[in-house]
Amino acid sequence: MTTKNNSQISKHNRPICRRGVIWITKLCNIKCKFCYYLYEKGKTHTSFDSIERTIKWFKNQYHLEYVDITGGEPTIHPDIEKIIELSNENGIKPTIITNAQKTETIEKLIHAGLEDILISIHGINDFYDNVVQKKGAFKNIEKTLSMLNKNEFSFRTNTTLTSYSCNDIEEIVSWLLRVKPRIANLIAFNPHEGTLWAQENVQDFQVNYTKMAEAAKYAIDKLMSNGIWVNVRYMPLCFMKGYEKHICNFMQWQYDPYEWDCVSGERLSNEQVTKSLSEAEENGVFGNSDEEKIKNYLMKKQTSVNSYISQCSDCANKSICDGIYPQYLKSFGGEEFIATLGEDIEDPLHYRMEDLRWSQLKERF
Ligand code: SF4
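# iron/sulfur cluster complex -> structure
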């Protein structure tokens, strides 16, 4: 991206994502019942050479500053320590997204230069062990958290909103209040196109947005009053009236410094970036800079298979909403959706700009 874009972003004081993502394995040491890769055959680790090429590409072609290293479970990759070192050598600060089962490995990664850690937590005690189908798994997380505490290494958490976590939300929130992540992400189970669950009818773990929103609002009220910022991902804005600033859906993604840059995600060449800009302009996509226009255009394309129902035509948020996943509509219908009335909102950050705590990177805490 050009200097011109950067100066415009700073002029408008709008954050923009500089983080890539790299999947280094599809293998895992637990079996979350809602995992996208649960039944995939022939899962393997990515080779170190391929990871090295990607990291260098992130730096030289896309000028990224951060990378999320994920899987599968990244801590079981045999070269994970080398990958953390490689990332730092290339000037990209590494985060791992982990189930926190391997305490000793994670401690080594901290000493090898890990910048941040995002821990997945989907329940508490036996409830968690049941969801991830591994006895003693929750105890391993507790052990990792003690180690992080000892090393004064802060962390964030991800919780997927399913029937498991929604039914256990009070316990999860009490635990979060005790262990104090910097940021807690609540992720509505999202049956993206191309994933295992996109074509399936109601999964036994899938609940409707009304139930997910109830759990999310409970968590926001408790955690925010204790200084823990909460993001809610992939939840239609109409379910979170009064809580919209917490929503980070596809249209808000490219501004969130903890999410993933879509230009590198799609491995776009310079020519493709230029073409995306002219298509974005032809389509009147919102943006205060070329970079915003390109990214908002690409994110719109990513959700283009989603639907809008009759209520959506009256909704003030329709331009900044991802629409409704086809699998969700097929499973639950559209009766729960109630439009937000008012003037049309075009800026994806309309609500997020009310409070910028979500945009504070680790160094600034
Ligand atoms: S456009 Fe539709 S799905 Fe999106 S927030 Fe509005 S009513 Fe909800």
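# post-check
The pocket of iron/sulfur cluster is lined by residues 236-238, 308, 311-312, 315, 317-318, 321, 324, 337, 339-340 (CB under 6 Å).
The longest strand covers residues 93-98.
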